[in-house]
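in:
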C-alpha cells in the first residue's frame, strides 16, 4: 500500500513536471509554411533582453514595438541595438542561407540554449517573426495591464515562414461611418497581428468625404458631415432642413501623414479609394457643378435615407443622381485636383478609383451624356463609364500612380493599365486576368465582412450571410487562371451598418483570421478543424486584449420545411464539431439538460416559439436563439 502511494505521488510529480515543461501547442494564425516543435520550453525569467546587430530605423522601431508588447509581462525588457550579447531574443538581418523566404519571410527558432532567434532578409520579415513570437507566448501577453504570476514560456520550435501573396488586404470603409485616426490605428494594430500588409480606406462615398483636399475645401467643410441617425441604415427618415449636419469628420492631410507613417512602421501600405463616378453624393453636395442633373444644387450628403432602389432583377437605379457626370469637363478638372493631392500624400503605388454600382438611369436622357455619346461614338452607357474610367486612368497616371478599380470598370472596355478588384464573385477577376491585367480578389462570396455571420434571428441584420467556414474556403487563384496576375486577396468591411469600433471588431474577427490564412499560408496547409481550434485560442487572446469578436461559429444553421399537412420540420446543424444543440418549444430557456438535437424535429402544432442554444459538454457555447412561430412558418412556406 505504501509502495503504491509513493508511486502514485511520483506519477503525479512527473506529470506536473511534464505540464510545466511543455508549453501549450502553438496556435499560429496564419498557419506558417513549416513548423516543427520539440519537447520542452524556453522561459523568460527575471528580465527580457532583445539584441540586434542591425541598427536601421526600421529594425529599431520593431524592437520598440516588441518592448511595448512585452510591457504586459512583469519582466523588465530592454532592446540593445548594435550589440552582440547574451540575450533572450536576437534579431538577425541578411544572414540567411535560405533565400526562398523573400522580403517578408522569416525564420524563427526557440532553443533552450539560445532562446529566440528571428532571422530575415528584410525588416518586414523580422516584424512578421515578432508577430509569430507573440502568438507563441501565453495569451496574457495581450493584456491591457501587467499580467502577474504568469510563466512566460515559449515552446521549442523551428519555423520557416513567408507569405503566399504580396497583397494581403483589409478594407475599412471610413466613409459610411467615420472612424477617428486613433480608431484606424487600432484597426492597423489588430490586422498586423495576422500579417496583413494593406489597408484599403474608402475615403469618399455618398455618406462622406474623409480626406482634406486643400484645393477643394468644401469637400470637407460640406462633404464630411451628415445628420446622425441611429437604427437600420437605408431605412432612415429623410433628414429635415433643421436637423444639424454635424455627424462625421475627416482626416486632415497631417492626420493622414501620421496614419501613413504609423502604418509604414508596421509594414502596412494604405490604399486610398476615391469612389467615382457613382457613390459620389458627398462630392456633389459639396460641388454641385460635378453633376449634369438639374436640381443637384439641392443635394445633401446622405444620412442613410434611401437613395437607390435594388430590385431583385439586379437593375438597380438611383433616386437622386449620385454620379459625377462623365460629359462634364469640370468633373475631370475636379478629379485632377483631387488626384494631385492624393498622389502627393499617399506613397502607395496604386490609387483606387471605385467604379462600382454606378446607376446610369439619370444618364439615359441627359442631353450632355447623349451629346458625348455621339461625339465619342459610344454605343452604350457602359461605354460612357468606360470613357470616364479611361480619362481617370490618364489623370492618375499623370500623377505617377497606377489605377485599381472595382470589377465594373471592365464593362464597356477596361482602361489599358488598370488593375481590377473583383468583388461580384471571382468572375471579373478571371476576365481581367485573362486580359493580362493584375487582379486582387475580394469576392462577396468569401470575403465580405459586412455580411452576417450567422442566422438573422441573432445577428445584426444585413441582406446577406457569410459564415466563417465559407470565408475559410477562400482561394484567391481560380482554376485556369495564370497565378502571376493574381496579386492577392482582400476582405472588405463596409460600414453602412457598422456604427462603432466594437462592432467593426465583431465583424472583422474571426473572419479576418480565415482570410489571413487564404492570403498568407500555403494552400496545402489549410485545415478547417485545426483552424477552429486555433481560433478558439485566439478568442482567449482577444479577451485579454479587450477586443470584440463574433462567437457566431458556435450558433447553428437552421432549415425549415413543411409537409403536405403544413406541419413544420426543423433541421439544425453546427458549423463546428463537438457541439450539442439543445432546444425547446415550451418557451422556457433550454440548457444542457434539455433534449439534444440529433434528427429533424417536428414543430409541435401549438408551439409559439422554438428556443435553441449550443453546449460543449456542460459548457454553454452559443447564444440563445428564439424563433417565433410566425418566423418558422415563413421560412417553411406555411401560409
Ligand atoms: C462594392 O461592394 N460595392 C464594391
Amino acid at each position: 500500500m505504501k509502495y503504491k502511494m509513493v508511486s502514485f505521488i511520483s506519477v503525479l510529480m512527473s506529470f506536473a513536471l511534464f505540464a510545466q515543461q511543455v508549453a501549450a501547442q502553438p496556435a499560429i494564425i496564419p498557419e506558417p509554411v513549416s513548423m516543427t516543435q520539440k519537447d520542452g520550453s524556453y522561459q523568460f525569467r527575471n528580465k527580457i533582453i532583445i539584441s540586434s546587430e542591425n541598427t536601421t530605423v526600421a529594425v529599431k522601431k520593431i524592437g520598440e514595438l516588441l518592448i511595448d508588447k512585452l510591457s504586459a509581462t512583469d519582466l523588465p525588457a530592454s532592446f540593445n541595438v548594435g550589440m552582440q550579447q547574451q540575450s533572450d531574443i536576437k534579431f538577425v538581418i541578411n544572414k540567411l542561407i535560405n533565400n526562398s523566404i523573400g522580403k517578408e519571410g522569416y525564420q524563427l527558432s526557440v532553443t533552450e540554449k539560445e532562446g529566440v532567434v528571428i532571422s530575415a532578409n528584410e525588416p518586414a520579415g523580422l516584424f512578421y517573426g515578432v508577430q509569430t513570437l507573440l502568438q507563441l507566448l501565453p495569451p496574457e501577453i495581450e493584456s491591457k495591464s501587467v499580467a502577474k504570476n504568469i510563466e512566460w514560456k515559449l515552446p521549442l520550435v523551428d519555423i520557416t515562414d513567408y507569405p503566399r501573396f504580396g497583397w494581403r488586404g483589409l478594407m475599412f470603409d471610413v466613409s459610411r461611418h467615420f472612424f477617428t485616426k486613433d480608431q484606424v490605428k487600432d484597426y492597423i494594430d489588430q490586422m498586423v497581428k495576422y500579417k496583413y500588409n494593406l489597408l484599403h480606406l474608402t475615403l469618399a462615398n455618398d455618406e462622406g468625404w474623409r480626406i482634406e483636399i486643400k484645393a477643394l475645401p468644401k469637400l470637407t467643410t460640406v462633404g464630411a458631415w451628415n445628420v446622425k441617425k441611429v437604427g437600420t441604415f437605408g431605412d432612415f427618415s429623410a433628414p429635415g432642413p433643421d436637423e444639424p449636419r454635424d455627424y462625421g469628420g475627416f482626416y486632415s492631410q497631417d492626420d493622414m501623414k501620421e496614419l501613413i507613417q504609423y502604418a509604414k512602421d508596421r509594414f502596412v501600405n494604405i490604399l486610398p479609394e476615391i469612389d467615382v463616378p457613382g457613390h459620389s453624393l458627398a462630392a456633389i453636395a459639396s460641388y454641385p457643378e460635378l453633376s449634369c442633373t438639374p436640381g443637384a444644387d439641392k443635394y445633401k450628403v446622405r444620412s442613410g435615407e434611401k437613395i437607390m432602389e435594388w430590385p431583385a432583377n439586379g437593375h438597380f437605379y438611383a433616386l437622386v443622381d449620385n454620379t459625377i457626370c462623365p460629359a462634364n469637363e469640370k468633373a475631370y478638372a475636379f478629379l485632377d485636383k483631387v488626384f494631385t493631392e492624393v498622389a502627393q500624400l499617399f506613397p502607395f503605388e496604386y490609387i483606387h478609383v471605385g467604379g462600382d454600382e454606378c446607376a446610369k438611369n439619370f444618364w439615359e436622357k441627359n442631353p450632355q451624356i447623349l451629346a458625348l455619346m455621339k461625339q465619342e461614338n459610344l454605343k452604350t452607357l457602359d461605354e460612357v463609364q468606360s470613357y470616364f474610367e479611361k480619362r481617370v486612368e490618364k489623370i492618375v497616371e499623370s500623377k505617377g500612380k497606377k489605377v485599381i478599380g472595382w470589377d465594373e470598370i471592365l464593362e464597356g472596355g477596361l482602361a489599358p493599365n488598370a488593375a481590377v478588384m473583383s468583388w461580384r464573385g471571382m468572375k471579373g477577376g478571371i476576365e481581367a486576368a485573362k486580359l493580362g491585367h493584375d487582379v486582387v480578389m475580394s469576392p462577396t462570396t468569401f470575403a465580405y465582412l459586412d455580411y452576417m455571420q450567422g442566422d438573422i434571428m441573432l445577428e445584426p441584420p444585413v441582406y446577406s450571410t457569410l459564415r466563417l467556414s465559407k470565408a475559410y474556403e477562400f482561394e484567391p487563384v481560380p482554376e485556369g487562371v495564370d497565378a502571376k496576375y493574381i496579386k492577392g486577396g482582400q476582405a472588405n468591411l463596409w460600414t453602412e451598418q457598422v456604427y462603432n469600433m466594437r462592432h467593426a471588431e465583431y465583424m472583422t474577427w474571426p473572419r479576418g483570421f480565415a482570410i489571413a490564412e487564404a492570403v498568407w499560408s500555403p494552400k496545402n496547409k489549410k485545415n478547417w478543424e485545426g483552424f477552429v481550434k486555433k481560433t478558439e485560442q485566439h478568442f482567449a487572446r482577444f479577451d485579454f486584449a479587450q477586443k470584440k469578436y463574433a462567437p457566431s461559429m458556435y450558433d447553428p444553421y437552421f432549415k425549415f420545411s413543411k409537409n403536405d399537412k403544413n406541419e413544420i420540420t426543423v433541421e439544425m446543424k453546427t458549423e463546428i464539431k463537438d457541439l450539442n444543440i439543445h432546444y425547446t418549444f415550451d418557451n422556457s430557456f433550454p440548457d444542457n439538460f434539455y433534449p439534444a438535437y440529433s434528427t429533424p424535429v417536428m414543430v409541435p402544432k401549438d408551439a409559439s416559439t422554438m428556443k435553441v442554444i449550443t453546449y460543449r459538454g456542460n459548457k454553454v457555447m452559443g447564444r440563445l436563439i428564439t424563433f417565433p412561430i410566425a418566423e418558422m412558418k415563413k421560412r417553411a412556406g406555411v401560409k
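note: The first strand starts at residue 34 and ends at 43.
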